[in-house]
Amino acid sequence: MPLKSKVAAAVAAAPVTVEDLFIALHHHIETGDFAQVVKVADQVLKAAPGDEDAVRCKVVAHIKSDGINQALTAIRTAERLLIDLGYYKAYCQNKLQEALELLRGQEETSAVLRLESQILYRLGRMNDCMNSYEKLQKFKIDSMGLKINIIAALVVFYQSL
């Protein structure tokens, strides 16, 4: 094995510290590489579960890359932690509300209804979500993904009663 390959293998095998990960995180934030920010934040959270800075970086990176659903998922995952992410949650829900407003007045195609029901689900508006899924049934779409979404919405709907 050439020396260069041996050095690269040794560097790859060296344990990475949380400090090293935060240096990498800072670099990716500075360069605007939000996909890498999420990956490195996940590595930090694996090494230091519940790290508030890593959670915030991950949420903001998702928002910056227009991953509103991923940001909301990260926020929900962090709910058990004592981190106030209310501002970010409100921001994401505002974006979802804007998306919902853009759908208003559109022809009720299967694609529009499917997106509407997903947005309503994310907003926690389960009655409206179920109404949207009912309208979607008239299109007789045979999709496993759609069936799973409907079942998930039903479960949340009945839990909220």
From TrEMBL:
Q: Which GO terms describe its biological process?
A: SRP-dependent cotranslational protein targeting to membrane
**InterPro entries found in the cross-reference section:** SRP72, TPR-like_helical_dom_sf
Any one annotated GO CC term: signal recognition particle, endoplasmic reticulum targeting
The terms under GO molecular function for this entry are: 7S RNA binding; ribosome binding
Q: Which domain of life is it from?
A: Eukaryota
Q: What stretches pass through the bilayer?
A: none
Protein name, per record: Uncharacterized protein
